[in-house]
Model the fold of this input.
Amino acid sequence: MSEEIPWEKLFAAAAEVRQRAHVPYSRFPVGAAVLYPDGSVVTGCNVENATYGLTVCAERTALATGVAQGRGRPVAVAIVVDTPTPCPPCGICRQVMAEFASPELPVRSRNLKGDEARYSLGELLPYAFTRDFL
Ligand code: THU
Done:
């Protein structure tokens, strides 16, 4: 399955949306692209706020848009950040991914040099708390 994922398309979309990040405080723009079962790609960038704490990460922006558009369960997530080594998603975003995807969800991150890190959601968030416990 993972080999059928159009990673280059996802990373291109993540890099493009990253340029629209609202990051006046951190100056740390992040772009994310999520692939859905119908082949559609939904993107998101981080959106900061003067209160700081209301910041929403790129990954969650993309996942929330996917919900709003009725896209279904995420198939893959690509992240682009300008860091020396590829940057993994934060803990809050991992939990939100676990709301909508299985532990097999492939997550990949690249920096602007093209270095890439590959994870599964299960590796990123073992023992996830999910609706199964409710
Ligand atoms: N950020 C993301 O958008 N995604 C991550 O996975 C890590 C952090 C954002 C939040 C904030 O706007 C900036 O990066 C610095 O933490």
